[in-house]
Amino acid sequence: MTQSKRETERKYDAPSADDASWLPDLTGVGGITSVVETGTHELDAVYHDTEDLRLAAASATLRRRTGGTDAGWHLKLPLSGDSREEVQAPLSENLPDDLRELVLSRTRGAELTPVVRIRSTRRTRQLVDSGGTVLAELTVDAVRAQSLGGTPTLAAWTEMEVELVEGTDPSLLDAVEKTLTRNGIDRAAGPSKLARALETTGLGAPRVPDPRAETVESGTAGAEVLAHLDGQVGSLVNLDPAVRRDRPDSVHKMRVACRRLRSTLRSYRSVLGREVTDPIRADLKWLGGELGAERDQEVLMEEIGARVEALPPELVLGPVAARLRAWNVARADEAHRRSLDALNSPRYLALLDSLNTLTARPPLRPKAARKPKKVMVKAILKEYDRLAARMARALELPPGKERDVALHEARKAAKKTRYATEPARAVLGKPAKRLGKRVKSVQKVLGEHQDTVVARDALRKLAVAAHAAAEPGFTWGLLYGGQQAVAAEDERDLPAVWTKASKPELRKRLSR
């Protein structure tokens, strides 16, 4: 069983661990009224990584630590700014399976072995406010690092860390740092003890091969597309642990990353060779489909649950809420298991390897070396024209199942058009942003319409089950009718929204 917390901290170079005369008085800084010494601990941590240091390259650390108040296995994953998420598991001899799975998107299945042992003598002080609340902990560590494997190499240094207690205003770090800097205490060069240990023991910083630098010049279409792909691959990798732990909205975000990657590889086939990208697109489509069951259930439950809660009590006949909860529990558990099975599958690991190879050794086509504007405009307009054709067909059809399908196809084309604008926004500026925004408005209406199609199907099935159990069907029919009304409203609004997105001047501005 694991537990996690968010840690927000900054590290500093410290001149000495034994003599604290260099440490400035922090009382009066940022609401600190007293500094309380709480003792000394001996910490012993063994850091694990792959042979080529994939975790360290991704700014993640995995260690088994004894001593102190939180002995056990610790996995630290990067967040924004000064924050990281720390996932803890109880102390054991072997790496817990839960943690092994949480780093799978970064290790891509490579074996984890001990790489560095770090022992620290830690002296801790609490930074306390006038009400006795601990705002942060200030620790000074005398660090001894030893490389593992081959001929051991030793290194030693002293560092200081200021870590906020959860709930403390992050501005306290700035106030403390201002005082420290004024007294000659500077930020540590490395982001973590592990990074410094790798460097000082001779193992070296993680070196991710970048043959791309030899083949992709900055300011080219290839460079712009690959920069966008890098970001989306990073998002997919970073979201993996959140999906495994069922974090809110994580499945949706990971599915969107899959779609963005697929769309970019499709829209910019003139830049990257299809012999490499088409199989990757197929695997991304598979992964998005596996995650889709869980996401679709989330959306359904949110929509139907909110509609039930909004009904006056006199219109809720029978055990509607109970049936809805039971239906959701059964489907949500099954859908989450499907997501986990996908993330633990050989196909997923192969996809991660393929994405890593794609960004490190891209299959560049001749147009990748061209200036980006013309290449990107052509790619965007190709998707835009496809969207226009699908919208024209959908709007010509009468309401019904055939039109529902056509509107769904138009929705997918709208997403692809919007995603095609994203890699180009730095190059094309406002015209690309404006087009993307207008297309997103179309996508929103089409998405809401498609949600009603899925919701109506689910409500019909719930009504059938309620009828079979001799329960009243009135409320289910009422909810179904509500979804029909939303769909009709969307279909009435769509032509006007599309007119704004299909103005000729949008296309002209993009092509200038």
Instruction: Let me know the number of strands.
Output: 8
What gap, in angstroms, lies between the N and C termini? 58 Å
How do the strands of the widest beta sheet line up side by side?
A: 1-5-4-3-2-6-7-8
| Global morphology | globular
User: What is the residue-mean pLDDT, rounded to a whole number?
Assistant: 93
Rg, Cα atoms, Å: 28 Å
What kind of sheet is the major sheet? 8 strands, antiparallel, barrel
pLDDT below 50 for ≥5 consecutive residues: which ranges?
none
Question: Helical region count?
Answer: 17
Structural category: alpha+beta
Q: Please estimate the helix content.
A: 40-55%
Q: Could you give the order of the helices and strands? A: EEHEEEHHEEEHHHHHHHHHHHHHH
| Beta-strand residue fraction | 15-25%
Describe the protein's architecture and organization:
There is one protein chain. With 512 residues, this protein is of the alpha+beta class. 55% of the residues lie in helices and 17% in strands. The chain has helices at 54-57, 97-102, 104-107, 171-182, 193-200, 212-215, 221-244, 250-267, 274-310, 320-343, 346-360, 372-396, 401-421, 425-428, 430-468, 474-501, 504-511; strands at residues 3-13, 34-49, 61-66, 72-78, 83-89, 113-128, 134-147, 154-164. Strands 1-5-4-3-2-6-7-8 form an 8-stranded antiparallel barrel. The longest helix is centred in the C-terminal third of the chain and has 39 residues, at 430-468. The mean pLDDT is 93.
